[in-house]
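dumping this here before i forget
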Amino acid sequence: KQWYQRRVREDPKVGGLCPAALQATLESWPKDKPLPKALLLCPTGCNPSGANVPEGARRKIYRLACEYDFLILEDDPYYFLNYGKELTSFLSMDIEGRVLRLDSLSKILCPGLRIGFLTCPSVLQPYPELAKRAIVRGVAIVQGAAFQLKGDSPYIR
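structure:
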């Protein structure tokens, strides 16, 4: 089955994804095509510009996700490396269970540590479990070392 997709431009004045451009794209979506099911974005340190999506723009993007009923895949490996003002993640503002957040230990601890982690609401947990079966496994010794870092955290399982 062929997917229909569109790219939404970044706006250097806004810093990353432009909510007005996203809204215009959604409003002009072809009537014979289903609306998007998900939006993938890197809100902190967006490549290639390195810009951070400002909090106001993040809130507008989240409202559009609610209005047009799509998920936000928040791919945010640079979130913990932001040395400016603390940023609000999409996951922290999610009240409808529509944000899946992806982080990476390779950016936080060391570049060769190819381990990422997903945080999502319990209602969405069955879907990553299904997708995990199709993903190639990483190096077991690296996974074991990363697991030892978790300590007694109740948030990591």
